[in-house]
Amino acid sequence: MVSITETQKIGVGLTGFGLFCLLFGVLLYFDSVLLAFGNVLFLAGLAFIIGPRRTAGFFFQRQKLRGSTFFLGGVALVLFRWPIIGMAVESYGFLLLFRSFFPVAFGFILSLVNIPYLNVGNSSSMV
């Protein structure tokens, strides 16, 4: 069993609340205050979960520098009250940062749910 420290629990709460604020900010027609608050909480929660040194190491790896620039630039644009352009730039940076993680996540989700047409590995289930 993996033990979670109190700091990591706080980080999970901050990250979850940040994602909630981001979603609610988008639903309220790109409310810049909620988006900025969500961005700050998300980044603070990430730093609490994996630590500030590993967070900086993740964002400033040489192969992820372009994605980090777009993501953090989008956060800056949202903070400067350009929410629509900022969220577009931030989303592109998020895709660049986590593109190696998406196949792993989709494979995990597909292994949990047995949907016959999405299950590529087993062709007998499509009968």
Automatic annotation (TrEMBL):
Localization in the cell: Golgi apparatus membrane
Family membership: Belongs to the GOT1 family.
GO cellular component terms listed in the entry, alphabetical order: cytosol; endoplasmic reticulum; Golgi membrane
Gene: GOLT1A
Species per Swiss-Prot/TrEMBL record: Oncorhynchus tshawytscha (Chinook salmon)
PANTHER family (UniProt xref): CGI-141-RELATED/LIPASE CONTAINING PROTEIN, VESICLE TRANSPORT PROTEIN GOT1A
Protein name: Vesicle transport protein GOT1A
Domain of life of the source: Eukaryota
InterPro entries, per database record: Got1, Vesicle_transpt_Got1/SFT2
Keyword list, A-Z: Golgi apparatus, Membrane, Transmembrane, Transmembrane helix
Biological processes, Gene Ontology terms: endoplasmic reticulum to Golgi vesicle-mediated transport; retrograde transport, endosome to Golgi
